[in-house]
Specification:
216 residues; alpha/beta; Heat Shock Protein 90; Rossmann fold; 7 helices
């Protein structure tokens, strides 16, 4: 990208990354760790993009990885530019309200932001109980909920309650735990308006599944 930048390089001498991992390294929820959200690098990528910069990565298996962050160089006494708002091509056709239920604050923020960018009206809750409160007070077209959540109302129980009380609400479950995914897939045939999106997933996957659920 043309321009004047300040570059920050961060290197390690770890195991490095294979080419197939490098291809997805900035995707939300992509991770090679047993524990982790897969959001760290995607958030860095988003921050740099919003700041007018960019990031690149170089890695060799067995040697390590280097990330280079490029930030626009500020000219002395330069006026802060005001970015022109780009029209969202989805806003004209998407007026549905989606309720995002996720106890992990970082993941919930990313999903909410992506859905807003896609043109949806978005509500959020950090637990099944809080989600029921929202549903009691607001009209919701689709429930997007994690399956594994603390408290007595997890995602599957929440889906049952919503199906009983608000049968018109479409439901999309999501989880990254294989055994939970298998259970949810088995239940999908029993609840006609329920769909499953497995983690990790990309924004295009989120958009596709939400759209399909709302059209069903």
């Amino acid at each position: 990208m043309p321009g004047s930048y300040v570059m920050i390089a961060v290197s390690d001498s770890g195991t490095g990354m294979a080419p197939d991992v490098m291809t997805n390294v900035f995707e939300p929820f992509f991770t090679t760790k047993r524990q982790g959200t897969g959001l760290g690098l995607s958030m860095v990528f988003g921050f740099l993009k919003q700041s007018g910069g960019y990031i690149d990565a170089y890695s060799e298996p067995g040697l390590g990885t280097t990330f280079r962050l490029y930030l626009p160089r500020a000219e002395e006494n330069a006026a802060v530019p005001t970015a022109a708002a780009e029209p969202n091509k989805h806003l004209a056709t998407r007026h549905e309200t989606v309720l995002v239920v996720e106890d992990n604050d970082a993941i919930r923020r990313v999903v909410v932001r992506q859905l807003i960018e896609l043109g949806y009206q978005v509500l959020e809750a950090a637990s099944g109980a809080a989600a029921l409160d929202v549903l009691t007070e607001r009209k919701v077209d689709l429930l997007f909920t994690d399956i594994v959540m603390p408290g007595r109302i997890d995602g599957r129980e929440l889906a049952n309650l919503v199906t009983e009380r608000w049968p018109s609400v479409k439901i999309v479950l999501t989880s990254g735990f294989p055994q939970v995914r298998n259970n949810a897939e088995g239940r999908a045939e029993d609840i006609g308006n329920l769909r499953l999106l497995t983690k990790p997933y990309r924004r295009t996957d989120l958009e596709r599944v939400i759209r399909q659920a709302l059209r069903s």
